[in-house]
Amino acid sequence: GENVEQHPSTLSVQEGDSAVIKCTYSDSASNYFPWYKQELGKRPQLIIDIRSNVGEKKDQRIAVTLNKTAKHFSLHITETQPEDSAVYFCAASSRGNNRLAFGKGNQVVVIP
Amino acid sequence: EPEVTQTPSHQVTQMGQEVILRCVPISNHLYFYWYRQILGQKVEFLVSFYNNEISEKSEIFDDQFSVERPDGSNFTLKIRSTKLEDSAMYFCASSANGAGATGELFFGEGSRLTVL
After folding, report:
1. Which positions in chain B touch A102 (Cβ < 8 Å)?
2. Does residue A82 have a cis peptide bond before it, meaning omega lies within 30 degrees of 0?
3. Helical H segments across chain B, by residue range
4. Chain segment B44-59, per-residue pLDDT in tens
5. How far is A112 from B18, CA to CA, in rounded Å?
């Protein structure tokens, strides 16, 4: 089955700097890659996703890039703010199945 | 905004006891899921449910686990005889479309199960 790996496990950034989290996946049939954010004590929530037919998607300060050849995708957060502090999970799934394979999560800490 | 709700938020049980975790998915969603996260580890897929039957399950979801949608609103996960290694946060999720069709998953806040 699909195996998703995330790194680094913890990332500390100064407020205003950028944060980048990378994920790799193993199944070349995967075609959908969402990112979920989980604040402390709260539920995971979708923040951005990308399909395999595009290489990049942006939503305000958040962007996701996909490299299908290398089988990795990255989350980019620009101009980080304290409220960006959370655990970020990447996931992958392929058309025809109903499971998302999640990574282990990255703890992002934005230092004011 | 509609939310997935889960009960209980935390349950402590003795090894060998049966546990039922309850979820109320978002009302117009068609796909329902259970995931679990052992402390410090990945969020792991357990099972997906569509059209009143299991559509997929992982190798974790063995005979000790079962799911049910007993009425039009609840979606339950039952663990028949809990083991220590079942201790985890269990997340319920629902989506309007299947995960493979890029249906956004809406998660509940989780039920923390502690098996002693």
Report:
1. 35, 42-45
2. no
3. none
4. 999 999 888 999 899 9
5. 46
